[in-house]
Design a protein that fits this description.
Blueprint (H helix, E strand, L loop, with lengths): L1 H23 L15 E4 L7 E7 L2 E8 L7 E4 H5 L10 E6 L3 E7 L6 E7 L7 E3 L10 E2 L4 E5 L3 E6 L4 E6 L15 E6 L3 E8 L2 E8 L3
Parallel strand pairs: 9-13
Antiparallel strand pairs: 1-2, 2-3, 3-4, 5-6, 6-7, 7-8, 10-11, 11-12, 13-14, 14-15
Length: 217
């Protein structure tokens, strides 16, 4: 009887420990996912006072606005609609470069998935917005991209943009890769970019594939 009681007690203790471990575990995120209620605001130095803002709603980025004093009305879009996904933003993983009264380059990573996004936002309404949902942003520690450059990829190429000159260089992957942009490091392990060089380490069949190209930006 004593042996039976002891066995039951041990089993109950083990289950209790297992439940405690499970409830205490938390999934890792790319950046702090604490609910943000403050508007993200970026201001340019041009005399027309260009500005880009993102106002949050229900803890996610909601309304994207970019304007300056020379416009009768600013430009505005719903961020979740543009991205086809709701994103949680944090000051540690968002940046914006504003080129005078011409355009802005907005870059950020979703704190939940780590996915990188990049947008070119022209102030002139005659020009279309460029929206890249496969950005290679330097907020990611495995991606080295200088402050005055931006990078993004597709399934076969990587592109590097000089955001001040608005010029682009490209390097091919030499074949098409199946890339899950919400789990980018499963395929694009690391990137190192400068004005004179693109280096990418890809993963194919579990093995590293290194590619490099000289560029001039």
């Amino acid at each position: 009887m004593r042996i039976l009681f002891f066995s039951i007690l041990v089993a109950a203790f083990a289950v209790g420990c297992s439940n405690n471990d499970s409830s205490g575990a938390t999934a890792a995120t790319f950046c702090d996912t604490t609910c943000n209620t403050d508007t993200f605001r970026f201001e340019g130095t041009h005399k027309l006072k260009p500005v880009v803002t993102i106002s949050p709603k229900n803890c996610t980025g909601d309304t994207l606005t970019w304007t300056h004093n020379g416009l009768e009305a600013g430009r505005q879009m719903h961020l979740g609609t543009m991205l086809e996904s709701l994103v949680r933003l944090n000051n540690s993983a968002i940046d914006c470069y504003i080129k005078e009264d011409q355009y802005a380059w907005l870059s950020f990573n979703d704190c939940n998935t780590g996915r990188g996004y990049l947008m070119k936002l022209p102030f002139d309404k005659k020009e279309s917005v460029k929206n890249f949902k496969s950005a290679i942003n330097s907020f990611d520690k495995k991606f080295v991209v200088p402050q005055d450059l931006r990078a993004y990829a597709d399934y076969s190429n990587i592109y590097v943009v000089d955001i001040a000159k608005d010029t682009t260089e490209r390097m091919t992957f030499k074949e098409e890769y199946k890339i899950n942009w919400n789990d980018i490091h499963a395929t694009i392990d690391s990137v190192n970019i400068s004005r004179s060089r693109i280096f990418v380490q890809l993963i194919k069949d579990g093995k590293p594939v290194q590619l490099e190209k000289a560029i001039s930006l």
